[in-house]
Amino acid sequence: MANAEVYLDHAASTSVAPEVRAALVGAIEQSWANPSSRHAPGVAASRALERAREAMRDAVGTRFRRVVFTSGATEANNLAVLGLGRGGRRRKLVSTAIDHPSILAALDHARRLGAQVERVPPGPTGEIDVERLAAAAAGAALVAVHVVHNELGTVVDIPALVEILARTTPETRLHLDAVQALGKLDLPLHLAGATSVAVTAHKVYGPKGIGALLLADEARPRPLLFGGEQQDGLRPGTENVPGAVALAAASRLVVAERPVVGERLRRLDERLRDGVAAFGDRLAPLVPAGRAVPGLVALALRGVPAEVFLHRLEQQHVYVSAGSACHARHARSAVLDALGVPPDVGLIRVSMGRGTTEDDIDAFLAAARAALPGAAG
Ligand SMILES: Cc1ncc(COP(=O)(O)O)c(C=O)c1O
After folding, report:
1. Domain residues for 289?
2. Core-most of 5, 36, 345, 374, by most CB within 10 Å?
3. Does ligand 1 come within 6 angstroms of the Cβ of 180?
């Protein structure tokens, strides 16, 4: 990207980090054989895959002994919801009203297959009441929920949820969408007690089209695809070895950098919040500081449609989004409706990354001032 461009849409996707690119190219060159082949090149590819699995367990939690590589988190979430939830008749599946479409649409599909589905509403700024979620989960086959919300940055109190579920409905499985949490939270600490976890490479400086579903021993999902015996038949098809190696390298990178990058994002988050304070309610944080992960700031926009604001920013080479990329074709984020935000308010998501600088934040603020004529500040 040219220097003058300011990319603040890391929650949508990230560019591939040089170290990840090197791992990817290395695997393309050295681990090109079919990992199911018994000859030496096949064994080398199979070993590369196993090393990638080991790295994923280190990043997410050694409790998740089975690592199933998928085409991304959409597939991993579908495999968890439909495979673990066994969307058969009279099974209850629970999530929240603001989870990612790869969970919610999978639940809709399960409902069409006869499952009972419940979506627990969030509080006014996206907070998930885990007591309420656990109460809805009584007797359910599965609860599927985000760890960090992709549009709001809010964090669900997973340890508390695990504790309540274990006490009140121990048979209920817990699937976590940790896509936006990898590299932001200490996952082995935070996710202990879950049944399965979905992650994807392209949000953590890896390539698109590779993700993983990590499974604890008690998880026995059914496959969604049918074919060969790869990955224990759970995800047939020749494994994407270079992708898996890249996902592992990306996960290792963001976990290693988390203390330093996290601290920088905290300062940049503060700078952004201080800066937007001057805009009053024309552009104001939806979620208070401390309730969202640093570096992902959802702003409520008033007075200008979000698409117009985005376009004005884009003309100044500042790239943010109006919420999830999955909803890019819709003018307004569906999450706002779930929060009960009035229809004349839009969402602007500013999501920072490992390369974001103070200058980028200042450029966003300057561009926002120019895009909101008459705004104070
Ligand atoms: C929270 C969350 N879950 C799932 C996904 C889907 O991931 P993928 O693009 O790898 O299918 C995304 C990203 O779009 C996301 O932000």
Report:
1. 6-15+258-371
2. 345
3. yes
Residue 146 Cβ inside 6 Å of ligand 1? The answer reads yes
Residues 365 and 273 in one domain: yes
Last residue of a domain, one of 233, 253, 273: 253
How many Cα atoms are found within 13 Å in the side-chain-facing hemisphere of 236? 9
Instruction: Establish if 268 belongs to a structural domain.
Output: yes
Alpha helices in 122-240 (DSSP H): 130-136, 158-168, 187-190
Pocket test for ligand 1, best of 74, 107, 327 (most atoms within 8 A of CB): 74
Q: Quick: pLDDT tens for 91-102.
A: 999 999 999 999
Which residues on neighbouring strands pair with residue 68, listed in sequence order?
213
Tell me the pTM.
0.96
Same domain flag for 83 and 218: yes
Write down the residue that tokens 């200008």 correspond to: 304
Q: What is the pLDDT of residues 3-55, one digit of tens each?
A: 589 999 999 999 999 999 999 999 999 999 999 999 999 999 999 999 999 99
User: Same structural domain for residues 273 and 199?
Assistant: no
The whole-angstrom distance between residue 182's C-alpha and the CA centroid of its chain comes to 8
Domain for residue 1, yes or no?
A: no
Q: How far apart are alpha carbons 315 and 311 in whole angstroms?
A: 6
Q: Where are the alpha helices (DSSP H) in the chain?
A: 18-30, 40-60, 73-78, 101-112, 130-136, 158-168, 187-190, 241-276, 306-315, 334-339, 358-371
230 and 308 fall within a common domain: no
Q: Whose CA is nearest to atom 7 of ligand 1?
A: 73
- Domain termination residue (choose one: 194, 229, 253): 253
Q: Is 326 a catalytic residue?
A: yes
Rounded to the nearest angstrom, the distance between the alpha carbon of 257 and the centre of ligand 1 is 22
Residue 252: closest CA among 164, 182, 343: 182
Q: What is the pLDDT of residue 324?
A: 73
Contacts of 143 (CB under 8 A, 6+ apart): 94, 95, 133, 134, 137, 161, 165, 172, 173, 174, 175
The total number of structural domains in the chain stands at 2
